[in-house]
Amino acid sequence: MDIRLHACSYSLHNRPFKTSYNPPPFYLIRLQVLGFAQALVHGEMKQVSPGDLLMYPPGEPYHLRVGKEGEDTESGDYFLLCDGSWMDEWWRRHDRDTLKRIPLDDHLLYLWQQLSIEQHRVNRNNQEIIGHLLCTLLLTMDQVTLDTGQKQGQDSVRSNELVVKMKQYINDHALRPLRVEEVAHHAGLSVSRAVHLFKEVTGYTIIGYAGEIRLSHAIERIQYTEASLESIAYSCGFGTYSYFHKCFKEKVGCSPSEFRKRPVLVGKDNQHYGTIQTISGISPDAYWFLRS
């Protein structure tokens, strides 16, 4: 099975960011899971939101922009760079739109997380496991797309507006104890309706989304301050350090202390590439591409 994974990670952007890569020599696949960004699609910069899948074949330009200077920003995505004859064959099976909206399927996200964790293992990097995980992820991506239709119409627009309202409330209050009831009340919904709607539109539970915001703040403070890990955990809304440690390792693939020690991956003009620091496992070609 000829398929090679050059890079796979979860990227959090909590400050304005933009990048313009030379046409990548790999397939580049990116799934927006949190917040918003803009990406080059057929020669135009278009907004991408949670559930938007970007796919670029080798040689197609890739430009990304997150937020604007002076504005609050949040954007989270999974991305991967890969190539190989199996990948070429998979790509030809269907017409591949550069931008496609797919459900944020729990199983799909789990596979992406596991692939990232496996690639970043320092002492147990297993290329056979990585290859099979990558193939499974790509095939699952196709299956999710085929199995689920997209909702349209006024009901969908109204639902999105309510979810945006709930997300904004969570963004503003995530660093303190937060109850689902108050989020639902803010949107004028019953708890059961708020829980169901938020999960349906974003792929996250309300508490899970709050956890993403807390982790985003924690990662920024670990990276850019000298505060102790314990104080960062408490200031970002985690009740105990042990719980923070568990959540962080499950999401990022390493402990907070390991994350703080690793070098920051930088891009063009010495800009930080989001908050990605788990660069072990990234191929040399992918590393230099990400820096270009």
Outline:
The chain is an alpha+beta fold. The chain is built from 11 helices and 9 strands.
Structural description of this entry:
The protein has 292 residues and is α+β, with helices and mostly antiparallel strands. 46% of the residues lie in helices and 19% in strands. It has eleven helices and nine strands. A five-stranded antiparallel beta sheet has the order 1-8-3-6-9, with helices on both faces. Strands 2-7-4-5 form a four-stranded antiparallel beta sheet, with no helix packed on it. Helix 2 runs antiparallel to helix 3 and helix 5 crosses helix 6. The longest helix is centred in the middle third of the chain and has 21 residues. Keywords: DNA-binding, Transcription, Transcription regulation. Pfam families: AraC_binding, HTH_18. It comes from Paenibacillus gallinarum. This is Helix-turn-helix transcriptional regulator.
In DSSP terms, counting alpha (H) and pi (I) runs of 4 or more, how many helices? 11
Strand content: 15-25%
String of helices and strands: EEEEEEEEHEHHHHHHHHHH
Secondary structure category: alpha+beta
Distance between the termini: 30 Å
Shape: globular
What order do the strands of the largest sheet run in, or round the barrel if closed? 1-8-3-6-9
Q: What share of residues is helical?
A: 40-55%
- Global mean pLDDT: 81
According to DSSP, the number of beta strands is 9
CA radius of gyration is: 19 Å
Low-confidence stretches: 149-153, 265-280
- Biggest sheet descriptor: 5 strands, antiparallel
